[in-house]
Request: fold
Amino acid sequence: MLQQRKGRTALASGLAAALLVLTACASPGTAPAPPVDETRTVTLQPFTPEGELTPGLRVMQEVSGRCVPSVLSPDNDHARRCFATETSVAMDPCYVPDPELGRRLVDHEELRELGIFTVAVCLATPEQTDLTRIYVAEDTGVYSAPTNSVDPHWALELADGTRCVKVFGVKEVRENLHLSYSCDDGGYLYGIPDEELRVWMIHYREKDSDELVYTEVRTAWK
Reply:
């Protein structure tokens, strides 16, 4: 039987008392994550309306390339999967600005001569601040197929603060659920989030464990 991972908001009084004791014994400077009242969804767009990167972001590398619809974030109109010309490396998700803004950002004769008509910036995790900027010569647009059966989120934060990023190509199935996310604590998520409740739930497997447990989702990015 599936058990529920720590972080569930409906706690019995005895468990609440135990948590108070554990909190009192925690090392200085650490605090338990607050309870999740409702899963927060974030649609990423790293450009401001003026075409600047949002505060806190900076470009550390610049390459040229082409972009296709994002595999990790198929429901975000600004998300792309881009391939760098110099290395043929695939980066997903990358984000493009609105078309008119993209044209203004590459309003330079040398770039136009190279066929560049917009830019994209790419990141591997939602908290990443050092980005790669791609000068885009080809963009095939957004995902056109129906996405109602596809998980549109590329990163999740669990109730205890664990961050997980979507993965593809790993053919592992447990309890009829495919492995879908890799987490920064060494664990994994299986299947897609259950969005029926205000606080979404998903199946989690701790590192070196064979057991799936049900855990809450605090934040979802697309």
In short: The two ends are 31 Å apart (CA to CA). Residues 39 and 218 are 5 Å apart (CA to CA). Residues 13-25 form the longest helix (13 residues). The helical segments are 13-25, 99-105, 109-113.
